[in-house]
Amino acid sequence: MQEIYVDNLKEVIRSKKRLIRDLNVKITNKGKNVFVDGSAEQEFLAIEVLQAINAGFSADRALELKQNNFMLQTVHIKDLTKRNDLERVRGRIIGTDGRTLKTLQNLTNCDLAVNGNEIGLIGPTEEMEDAVQSITSIIHGSKQGNVYGRLERQRKKKGEDDPELDIDMEKE
User: Fold this and answer.
1) Contacts (Cβ under 8 Å, ≥6 apart) of 34
2) Mean pLDDT of 145-157
3) Which residue, 34, 49, 66, sits at the end of a domain?
4) Cα–Cα distance between 46 and 37 in angstroms, integer?
5) Distance CA 87, CA 32 (A)
6) Where are the alpha helices (DSSP H) in 81-163?
7) Which residues contact 85 (CB under 8 A, 6 or more apart)?
8) What's residue 82's pLDDT?
9) How far apart are alpha carbons 159 and 172 in whole angstroms?
10) pLDDT 10s digits, 104-120
């Protein structure tokens, strides 16, 4: 039996039946402590899903971790910058009307969620390094356009190796 502390308990309780059914584990809670009981592999996956929910993802998005090559990564803004105006840093990551976040999601094929000073990423393992590097660059102050350009160049490089990769970009 594994235990995890969950801040976003409301989301866990709201989708508890679905989590139990899809993850094939027993989920109980005492306060914000959530207990997971099942086989070792299923418990591990359930803890990953609960960590994703804790990072700000909905249960539907967190369940994407069930796919074989998907993983969860969290980036802590405070670990990457000494700046005191963290609202401004979060604003740079989110962008006007969430455009920067949407563009990064499209270019990296990863779902992103900003929750306080933590950024959660769910996506294919091969795309995760680029996504984390992009978030890190924006936190360090790089222009969004430069980050997008680098991601597009890397997608084109990968596209030469993989002809099925879609490089169709929408201008906003």
Assistant:
1) 3, 4, 5, 6, 9, 12, 27, 28, 50
2) 91
3) 66
4) 9
5) 27
6) 86-94, 99-108, 125-139, 144-161
7) none
8) 86
9) 23
10) 999 999 999 999 899 99
Q: Confirm if 111 and 105 have CB atoms less than 8 A apart.
A: yes
Q: Map tokens 């790089």 to a residue.
A: 142
Segment 25-67, tens digit of pLDDT: 999 999 999 999 999 999 999 999 999 999 999 999 999 999 8
> Range of 7's domain?
2-66
CA 95 from centroid of its chain's CA atoms: 17
Cα–Cα distances (Å) from 36 to 24, 25, 44, 135, in that order, read 10, 7, 9, 32
In Å, how far from its chain's centre is CA 3? Answer: 21
Q: How many domains does the chain have?
A: 2
- pTM: predicted TM-score of the whole model, two decimal places: 0.82
State phi, psi for 57 to the nearest 5 degrees: -85, 155
